[in-house]
Amino acid sequence: MPSDAVALPGRRIAINPVSERRDKLLFRALAFVHLQDLTITDSAHMLLGGEVELVALLCCAALGLKAARDIPMCVWRFIGSNAYTEEAAQRILQAAGDILNAGCPPAS
Q1: Which residues of 26-43 are buried (b: 16+ CB within 10 A; e: fewer)?
Q2: Is residue 46 in a domain?
Q3: Does the residue 43 lie in any domain?
């Protein structure tokens, strides 16, 4: 996690209030906490960074935020790696959907 956003045990996050991109940091922290439920091994932890960035990117894009224009290098490395599987894509889309739908009443 970047120094401007911290995911804490017990599912709490902290965002630096004077950071320039608080919106993107918020989604990165939420994605990290949401995806952290997975069993993290050393190699999986490396991949988690790409997944976190993609979830944040999708959330920002869905809300029309300017932060969606900034695509970090780890996303390009993740997409170009063999780790970008259908399972990873499903995790990314599910996490983005869960975050964006948090607090909404369930569809009837």
Answers
A1: bbbbbbbbbbeeeeeeee
A2: yes
A3: yes
Q: How far apart are CA 24 and CA 15, in angstroms?
A: 10
Alpha helices in 6-85 (DSSP H): 22-35, 42-62, 73-80
State whether residue 41 is helix, strand or coil: coil
On the question of pLDDT at 79 being above 80, the answer is no
The whole-model pTM stands at 0.75
Answer whether 14's CB lies under 8 Å from 60's CB. no
Q: For residue 89, what are the CA distances in angstroms to 36, 51, 72, 106? A: 16, 8, 17, 23
**Mean pLDDT value across residues 76-98:** 81
Say how many domains are in the chain: 1
Give domain status of residue 105, yes or no.
no
